[in-house]
Amino acid sequence: VFPSLAQAQASVANEVYRELGQPSVFLFCPTEYCSSLCSPSPSKSCYLLTLGQELLPGVSIIWTGPKVVSQELSATLLEEVEGVLRRRPVIWDNLYANDYDCRRVFLGPYTGRAPGLMPRLRGLLLNPNCELQANFIPIHTLGSWFQSELRSCAHPDHAGMESAAALGDRQGTQEGSYSPQEALELALLDWVAEINRQALEPGR
Length: 204
Prior knowledge:
This protein has one domain (5-154, 178-200): Glycosidases (TIM Barrel, Alpha-Beta Barrel), CATH 3.20.20. It has a 4-stranded parallel β-sheet with strand order 1-2-3-4, with no helix packed on it. Helix content is 36%, strand content 7%. The protein contains 5 helices and 4 strands, in the order αβαβαββαα. α3 (75-85) links the parallel β2 and β3 (90-93). The chain has 204 residues and is of the alpha/beta class.
């Protein structure tokens, strides 16, 4: 019936989206959901080009970055993806995901995301550790990053002053910008307070 997988997927997604009354949040995860899965590249992928053309504008498209688990996200990459998809992507961030190797638990701060990404995003989802309690620091530091991004959006004259190369611990060199180390220290203070609070509860 359909000349390509992308056209089949777009047709079904559009039909479901309309049937549901075109909800404000409708997520579509493509088969090529990161750069390493695209052939030959995101901007030259016939599959992604077709999705960008065929999917209704209200349908949000999920993207994980350069890889399934991306150590870094840059504005340059997101510009390329936005261009081919004809919409800003929803980042499904697998930075902390450990479902592929449950022997590992990721407790570090949210990092490797260039400053000023928020205007390039339609949304951001964090795929956490499978262990519930291990996600206190990831979620807490994500909140600190988000607040920093909000401040940048509120002061556009300062947005984009830091280059995409200013990642990891190099973030936070400018006043008011996100510092992974500072975010980690704040998260640890709050986590210790939460642990102490739970320890005092009856029956603990």
